[in-house]
Amino acid sequence: MTNHHPLDFDKNVSRALNDRQLIKNIKSAMATLVSKRKAIFSDAAETERLRTLGNALKKTALSKLPQLLEQLEEKCTQNGIQVHWAETAAEANQLVLDIMKSHGATLLVKGKSMVSEEMELNAFLQKNGIEALETDLGEFIIQLNNERPAHIIVPAIHKNKDQISKIFHDHIPDAPYTEDVAELTAIARKTLRQKFYQADVGLSGVNFAVAETGTLCLVENEGNGRLCTTVPGVHIALMGLEKVVEKLVDLPPLLRLLIGSATGQLVTTYVNMITSARKQGEKDGPKEVHLIILDNGRSKIYADTRRRETLQCIRCGTCLNHCPVYNRIGGHAYGYIYPGPIGKILNPQIEGLRAAGVLASASSLCNACEEVCPVKIQIPDLIRRIRNESYSKDSTCTIEGHGYKRNLAEVLAWKVWQTINTHPLINAAGLKILNVLGMKIPKIGPLKDWIRYRTTPELAKKSLHELIKQHGVDHE
Amino acid sequence: MSEASRHRIFSRLQAATRQDTTPVSQLPELPIKTYSPKEKIERLITLMEAMRTEVHTTAAENWLDTVEDVLKVREAKRLLYAPGTEIGEALEHQWENAAADLPQLIPYKQDIEQLKEMVFNVDAGITSAAGAIAETGALILWPTEQEPRLMSIVPPLHIAVLKADTIHNSLLEVMQKENWPAKMPSNVVLVSGPSKTADIEMTLAFGVHGPKELIVLILED
Questions:
Q1: For chain A, which domains are there?
Q2: Which pTM value belongs to this model?
Q3: Contact residues, chain A, for B133 at CB < 8 Å
Q4: Consecutive sets of 10 residues in chain A, 476 residues long: mean pLDDT of each?
Q5: Quick check: A336 and A117 in contact, CB under 8 A?
Q6: Residue to substitute from B187, B196, B213, interface A, most A β-carbons within 10 A
Q7: Does A193 touch chain B (CB under 8 A)?
Q8: Parallel/antiparallel/unpaired status of strands B138-141 and B131-133
Q9: In this prediction, does ipTM exceed 0.85?
């Protein structure tokens, strides 16, 4: 995840909070997604069983990750899928470019892939003279408008119909102006059909890769994933190394969880299971299939057994939908491809605390993300871990940049706080003084920021100690 | 590049698993839901119709009449089919004695490289469904050498022919019963309806990239 500009999270948040249209668009869409999910997981006991199973399946897979990745590689190779390994986004980009070049290809049709966003693949290919075209409708819209996805499942959710009408009219040659969703969809179909026909190479992500059979599983509603992985002569699949699961029979529960959480459906329109390139005698399908397995910081996360849980994520996006912070600022404010609660724990661990640690501050720790997570990632606990490491120089810390927020003034302030609160006399005297002077927090330095969005707590006229002295303790 | 990266990635992962002593929890088992044969058909129809699939149940000997009807209504001019399959042979036979207003039969009998323009210009494609799943409401398409993958995704109308006794309770059940792990083909796809999207304001729109219409014929004995 190369972030070219340092993240100014405060500024991003302020900008988002002042964009009324954005907040309206996001809120309405999130409400729809939340209620659809609720309807599909209406049986609480069954949902709990499913989530427990999902958690166990992903935990098990992670516990034997190296073996499963080796098995996946072996099976895929047997099935004629070429497996490549990339340590960084730059390496993965280069691999895609090399495959394109080896076929003299200049047009790549893309199904939705968050890993490709993470790699900033489109910009890289464009620099190298290759057109990389998004075909998922949401991704297509934001590509036309030169934006990044605002949500990992519904990328153009920050735009309303009228804005999209204008984007289409401005950027698609000969597209008539229309605000009708069916007509807009038809324009996209017509424009992209031709590209599916022409493209030499198609690219997709991977939702689950099955080690047992070497099967790449991909869910979608539009059919662009099927077209990208079937029409062109070459198919490139991109996956993060955490996407591997052990057995084919692990798929049914994981699919239920992913799809139900992401879009509130029982099953998507299409569930693709790709196990090999075109075999002798088959009349279509890509003649070459390449699987690029990307690390990009994931193995660093894996090294810490507590933080490893982050890699259980199946990218359903439901933690975004349920997050009070995401609901008020949308995806772009986070400054990284993965926004919302999962982004708050993923980005700081990959990019280091200095670059992205601030994201962990954007949480009220309300726990909604953990309660809905289909694989039960304890996101709030990991947010606290990131916050703690931001201030700690302790040798048990494992996140890059830990202790970066530690400063003398704050350390001293807490020392004073500790002294006051562990010495009853000083505590009592302090409270007396505050009672007389009133609770006034000086608007200076870091305190100025701290009280900007907070109301000063009101002190009771009498302390609990004093009340007990006067009235005694009422034992009912 | 890839080999050196592979080595470094695996060294890091293996070092981490060596330190790890957390026991792996026992996997809980999910009960498989079971439906009676009648319930399976009903549930499949309800769920697929909710996804805007057009479903016809027909007696096994009359399915070709239904195919003719749905094609005539839509004034389809060209129908892509798979010669050499059970469905293909039945269609050829029926078309021999048919009236002139039926669409032209386009056989998928060469590699896509030779047929691409034709495949992209038919009005409909007809394939078999290898089975279906009652629990979630989806067809199982299992493309073969004779019945290739693109037949069910490129044409704007896809007609799928399903035998009622191949409807399974759940995906898990069919994977286990038919031992899928031992025989995964190049491509299997579950299909629950026509292509759709909700990417604009969460408003449903159909036929964005794949078929605009899906028609399922359920053949009952």
A1: 64-299 (3.40.50.10420), 408-470 (no CATH)
A2: 0.94
A3: 267
A4: 69 95 94 97 95 96 96 98 98 98 98 97 98 97 96 95 96 93 96 97 98 98 98 98 98 98 97 98 98 97 96 98 97 97 98 96 96 98 97 93 92 92 89 79 77 77 83 75
A5: no
A6: B187
A7: yes
A8: antiparallel
A9: yes
